[in-house]
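Dear H.,

Thanks for agreeing to be a second pair of eyes. The structure we're designing against is below in token form, covering all 286 positions.
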């Protein structure tokens, strides 16, 4: 930031509160990227494998409040597992995420109902679970927000927080050494299947060990690219995303945004959801 102000660098990325502080800066460029942050629940534990617990936590969260009032960094509320801008309907051109619809709207009444069901199924009135996060500012803010919401909306449920450095976070996720894990995924291609696979049981890239026969069948069909047409595969991916959101096997929170300050003397700089900054047509304005 200081180097940018001193004209020693022409582009600098901002995170966290620096984005909010520069909201009115005409040099600020914010782009929604193809990365979702989401919650994974360890199915090895009876408590965190409980579907009604997943739903209770998910519907208690106000993702609009989380992104606009807590993070304030340009990130937007997730609607489903697949972020906006990832794919379009091959027939109509409609955005994939918009076609799935917003399946993650806050609903505290439903959250309380699911929580009561979870308490009944688990045979406990008081339950404590731990949320594992990275130790970066955004992750810790999400954890603190969730902790406050759970305390307010789901009486009897206690959410403790454990923030660790990135390398340790990745290792603990890979080892399934968590109860609830704040994770995320960035894709390298325009294909919703790349996000949907993060809920696939046995996928080496996924730290989730959620297992559901219906979902596994849908993923197998999606991966069989020789059997289904482009439109058929697209429809299967829509079905899979809707089913995943119905079951809340993984609970998406928000789509990440990337914010940069760009020197006004530079032209030809572009930003894409997939690959970030594009420099190949950059030039100095006369």
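And this is the sequence the design step returned. I haven't edited it by hand at all.
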């Amino acid at each position: 930031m200081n180097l940018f102000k001193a004209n020693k660098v022409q582009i600098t990325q901002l995170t966290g509160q620096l984005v909010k502080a520069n909201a009115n800066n005409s040099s600020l460029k914010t782009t929604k990227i193809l990365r979702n942050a989401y919650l994974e629940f360890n199915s090895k534990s009876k408590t965190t494998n409980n579907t009604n617990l997943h739903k209770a936590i998910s519907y208690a969260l106000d993702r609009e409040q989380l992104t606009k009032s807590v993070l304030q960094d340009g990130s937007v509320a997730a609607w489903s597992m697949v972020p906006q801008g990832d794919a379009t309907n091959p027939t109509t051109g409609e955005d994939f995420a918009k076609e799935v619809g917003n399946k993650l709207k806050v609903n505290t009444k439903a959250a309380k109902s699911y929580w009561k069901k979870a308490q009944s199924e688990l045979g406990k009135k008081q339950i404590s679970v731990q949320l594992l996060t990275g130790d970066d500012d955004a992750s810790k803010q999400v954890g603190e927000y969730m902790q406050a919401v759970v305390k307010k909306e789901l009486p009897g449920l206690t959410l403790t927080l454990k923030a660790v450095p990135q390398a340790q976070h990745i290792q603990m996720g890979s080892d399934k050494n968590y109860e609830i894990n704040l994770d995320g995924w960035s894709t390298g291609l325009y294909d919703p299947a790349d996000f949907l696979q993060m809920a696939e049981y046995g996928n080496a890239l996924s730290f989730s060990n959620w297992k559901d026969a219906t979902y596994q069948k849908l993923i197998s069909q999606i991966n069989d690219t020789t059997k289904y047409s482009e439109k058929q595969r697209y429809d299967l991916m829509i079905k899979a995303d809707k089913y995943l959101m119905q079951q809340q096997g993984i609970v998406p929170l928000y789509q990440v945004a990337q914010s940069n300050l760009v020197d006004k003397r530079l032209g030809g700089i572009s930003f894409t959801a997939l690959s970030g900054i594009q420099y190949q047509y950059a030039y100095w304005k006369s």
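Two observations from my side: The radius of gyration is 20 Å. The mean pLDDT is 93.

Warmly,
E.
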